[in-house]
Design a protein that fits this description.
Number of strands: 15
CATH superfamily of the largest domain: Glycogen Phosphorylase B
Strand order of the largest sheet: 3-2-1-4-5-6-7
Number of domains: 2
Number of helices: 15
CATH class of the largest domain: Alpha Beta
Helix content: 25-40%
């Protein structure tokens, strides 16, 4: 079986938040489809360590491993540029292009790798896409995604998005469910506070135009500081505190990110986490009683169980607009324009959640298919194996 078709699962991001969206599929492919060679292609030793946390010892052994790590000197030189654009990611792809060219398929959770697809054209490997989330912003159906040959999508909503925006016809899409949800089977929520007060999670995005943190975040934390009978987990998108200055490629604007004021750090009812794996392993989203956010698709990970959600809109006139909210996921709860408006609603959080429950269930069913007993990872592995057999 030395000539087995090789499938590369590409983990080329500098952070670990995309790993759980595809690593289960890689493990299932290696275990269930031995006629294929499943290779984990990783960008750094730190990312490999994070990947292995998601696997059993047997799964680690069943997979092949290939590093794209840059020479340390080059890695250091790219550091300043990496603060402005994904310089290291691009450099790793260029340096590893020859090795990647030999795969039958490259599976990725981001579109940066498509620079190789455009270079190689139809003579190169097939490229498969697994979204790292199931959101409703236009990045979910970015025009560049047209270059993927196969899309492994969580639910009917994403298929409809791809078709409606001319990204991919339905026959290039496979509905597999949401792979991260496989890890929730039998997992009990953790307790992060000593009391039984309600727990809110605040999950602002990093985009400097769309994120509520830049203008309203401190006021959100101040509200909880002044209301100690509510607990708050401050759990932003993992990329928010990785840079001091953020550029928005979507809006071509940049801003310096505000730091966290010291007065919040010792508050017994506020837990601050800006860099741990809990920001993306669903620890906080399954433990909280209610969610506060803006444009992050993590709201759908919170809505694995329907619960109250609130959104802060700092960039549009969508709040209260008769035409409806700017994003589909804003139908899951109230949309406000400021922390002050949010604070006026929070005492009624349970009743507000009850009013939105039916819509939450509808949107979750549309977003993440859970109608099959098989795990999403198994369905994803079968889709890849079927594509390779048919090819």
């Amino acid at each position: 079986m030395a000539d087995r078709p090789a499938i590369a699962f590409l983990f080329n991001h500098d952070a670990g938040h995309q790993i759980a969206h595809s690593i289960g599929i890689a493990a299932a492919l290696a275990e269930r489809h031995p006629r294929l060679r499943t290779v984990i292609v990783y960008g750094s030793d730190a990312i490999r360590q994070e990947i292995e946390k998601h696997l059993t010892a047997a799964q680690v052994a069943a997979l092949d491993w290939q590093s794209l790590a840059l020479d340390r000197r080059i890695d250091r030189l790219l550091g300043p540029l990496n603060r402005l654009f994904p310089a290291r990611r691009l450099a790793r792809l260029v340096a590893g292009a020859r090795a990647l060219r030999g795969f039958a398929m490259i599976v990725s959770t981001e579109r940066t790798c498509l620079m190789l697809k455009r270079r190689w054209g139809a003579a190169g490997p097939a490229f498969a896409y697994i979204p790292h989330g199931s959101g409703d912003r236009n990045v979910a159906y970015h025009p560049a995604l047209k270059d993927f040959d196969l899309m492994l999508l969580s639910g009917r909503k994403l298929v409809d998005q791809m078709v409606a925006h001319g990204i991919a016809p339905a026959d290039r899409c496979r509905i597999i469910g949401y792979p991260k949800f496989d890890r929730l089977a039998g997992r009990a929520p953790e307790r992060f506070f000593a009391d039984d007060n309600p727990v809110f999670v605040y999950n602002p995005h990093f985009d400097p135009v769309l994120s509520s943190w830049y203008d309203e975040g401190e006021a959100v934390l101040d509200w909880f500081l002044a209301h100690p009978h509510y607990n708050l987990i401050f759990a932003p998108h993992v990329m928010l505190f990785r840079k001091k200055t953020h550029l928005s490629p979507e809006y071509r604007k940049g801003r310096r990110r505000p730091d966290i004021a010291e007065r919040f750090r010792d508050a017994p009812n506020i837990l601050i986490d800006v860099d741990s794996p809990r920001l993306f392993d669903m620890s906080y989203t399954i433990a909280a009683d209610a969610y506060i956010g803006d444009v992050s698709s993590q709201v759908y990970e919170f809505l694995y169980r329907p619960r109250p959600v609130f959104f802060i809109d700092v960039h549009s006139d969508a709040a209260g607009d008769a035409a409806g909210p700017a994003y589909e996921f804003w139908r899951n709860g109230p949309v406000v324009a400021s922390a002050e408006e949010l604070g006026a609603l929070l005492p009624e959080w349970q009743a507000i959640g009850d009013r939105h429950r039916a819509e939450q269930v509808r949107l979750m069913d549309y977003t993440a298919d859970r109608s099959y007993p098989r795990p999403a990872a198994v369905r994803g592995a079968e889709a890849i194996a079927g594509y390779i057999r048919a090819g």
